[in-house]
Structures are given as structure tokens and as C-alpha cells.
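Entry 14. Structure prediction run on the chain below.
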Amino acid sequence: MSASDAVRQRIALVSGAGGAKRHLMHPSVVFEFLALDRPIVLVTNPRHRADPAWLEDDIVWRWRDLGHEIGDAGELPAAVAAALGDPGARGERRRSYAQTLFGRFTDGRNADRAAEHILGAGRRVERGEHRAAAALPATWRWHDVRTRLRQHPARRPPSVTMSASG
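Output returned:
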């Protein structure tokens, strides 16, 4: 079996060959691969702008240059083979975005840090030293309000319907 055939076989398993409609990969996985500096292939649905959750200024859309982007799932085997053939392609861009997004937290110790934090909090509770959680910064609340307003149905153009009379 050639490398290309192996890639096609794996992709067929992931994509649900035989007509099954599935996501090839959830967008959040892109950020996992970004943190690990792995090659990324992005399959963009040609109708992505029709999705009610689509936000033009979201990093999922602004950072499309971090991977090889295709618009047709039929191009996937060749795109994956190309990405695996040259894993360093777009590496500088991936590392730049990873630094922007994750900072120093790409060292593989995040689970250790989380466990240390949780266990430390448990010890503080046992000693009666637990403090109430701080209020969220106003900027977080503002972002949440902006996001909700941007997605509100009143901001979407109304559907055009034709009446029987004309």
C-alpha cells in the first residue's frame, strides 16, 4: 500500500466514507494542533457564511493561514499527504499564533499546573483560607454582551418571503 493510499484509507475512516455526513474535525482541535506545532489542514465549507454562528472577525477565520486550506473534501487526501510531506510548512506562522494564544503554556505541563492549582485550592479550603472568587473583569462582561448582541436574531437580515399575491 502506498503512502497516498494509507492517507486515503485513514481519511475515509475519519470522514465516514460511504456518504455519512460528519465533521472531519471540530474547530477546537485546530488549536490543539497549533499548540503542538503540528501540520494543519483546514476544510472550509463553501457555505460557512450562512452558518448562524459564523463570525467574520473570529480567529477561526482570521487565522486561516496557519494551515493548508481547502474548499472540497475531495482534496483532503492530497492536502494531508502534502502536510505530512512538509510538516514545517507554515511552521513559523503556527508558532507565532501559538505564542500569541498560549504564551509559555506549550511546554506539556498544563495538566500538572492544573492539578497543582486544584490540590492547592483544596488544601486552602481545608485550612479555612478559601477566598471568594473575584468578580469577572468588566472587559469579559463587555465581550460577552458584544458576542450576544452580534448573534441576536434582530441583527440578522429578515428572511424574504413572497406572498401568493405578488
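The beta strands are 41-43, 68-70.
Filed with the rest of this week's runs.
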